[in-house]
Amino acid sequence: MIQSSVEFFKNLPAKQCSECGEKIEEQHECYGSKCDHCLHVSVN
């Protein structure tokens, strides 16, 4: 059975930061691999 691309992306596990292991709060299919804290980005 072939899965639709929408279902594929909905079923991806949450990404984890490659540095600290925390869950990354963003789209799972993006290319980033570090959380805002490890990137030293201030979140407003």
Structural description of this entry:
The chain contains 2 helices and no strands. The N and C termini lie far apart (44 Å).
Topology:
Elements: H1 5-10, H2 36-39
Q: What is the typical, i.e. mean, pLDDT?
A: 81
Q: Structural class, please?
A: mainly alpha
Low-confidence stretches: none
Approximate shape: elongated
Radius of gyration of CA atoms, rounded to a whole number? 13 Å
* Continuous helix count: 2
Order of helices and strands: HH
Distance between the termini: 44 Å
Q: In percent, how helical is the residue content?
A: 10-25%
Topology, number of strands:
0
Strand content: under 5%
Biggest sheet architecture? none
Pfam families: YhfH (PF14149)
Protein name: YhfH family protein
What labels would you give this structure?
44 residues; elongated; single chain; mainly alpha
Short description:
By secondary structure, the chain is mostly helical.
